[in-house]
Write a structure and sequence with these properties.
75% of the residues lie in helices and 0% in strands. Helix 5 packs antiparallel against helix 6 and helix 9 runs antiparallel to helix 10. The chain is globular and about 85 Å long. With 323 residues, the protein is mainly α. It has two domains: 88 residues, no CATH class; 204 residues, MetI-like fold, CATH 1.10.3720.10.
Length: 323
Amino acid sequence: MAAFLIRRLLQLILVMFVISAVVFLIFFHTPGIDPTRQIAGRNPSAAAVKEIRHQFGLDRPLPVQYVLMMKKIFITRDLVSYSNQGQKIVPEIAQAAPATLSLVIGGAVIWVVMSIAMGMLAAVYKGTLIDPLLMILALIGISMPVFWVGEVANLVTQSRWHDTFLFHWVPPLGYTPFTQSPLTWFEGLVIPWITLSILYTGFYARVLRANLIEIQSEDYIRTARAKGLSERRVLLRHTLRTSMITFISLFGLDFGALVAGSALVTEVVFGIHGVGYLAWQSFGNLDLPTIMATVVYGSFFIVAANAIVDVAYAWLDPRIRPA
């Protein structure tokens, strides 16, 4: 197992290198893109352009430029925005990351718990009225766009019913750090958590139900029943554990992508200035260093989530554990 973990760590480093190199080439060596012109502003003199290129190292060979940028991101942490040269990007991402992590982790807890409960109930009560009702609810959740759910939630909780006893506790849009006020942090994220989790709850519940029903016909499940194990033990110890492999695989990809910035829509709707919001602003301004740093940040979480999923595979199914 230790050798497996070391291999996954080395693969993570290699994939991170490839992603960062490809993104660097796309944004800094694509014909027609000249970061110097963006920094210098309109109608710069040739001398000003030359000075800026030298100041930011853009007159050096491409491999040297890449190494310098990685050094500024990971070691010195002094990479500066092109659109706002007084702003250091890495501290900006570090400041935005807690908002994104708070949003995604809370939403993930809700959708994991709810989808497992719905999927198990639908599988256990297959053939009864409960099964189609739960799956219809899941399909409705999948069909509702996040931005629409968020806007409706804001209309109800921030405007129409805000003064009622139901939603008078909901604070204004935005993010309050946990260290500043744990209660306000929680109250401000409850509605975004629910909004973010609705889509994933429906999707994961349907996937889990299908896996549970499929695995119930496997030989080892029939053997477990033949040994006299209770249905509850068969469900929790054998059926659910194997069914969670697909569930965890999807969760690793979705969680990593959300932390990487896919929670952008929810952040924008609820005024949460997280990493997705920061990346969205940087793309609008074509701020190449910020884009580069946010992509590296995001790729780390996606690759790390996949590595964790591989380890979870080995724990859930002994047949795929490395020798």
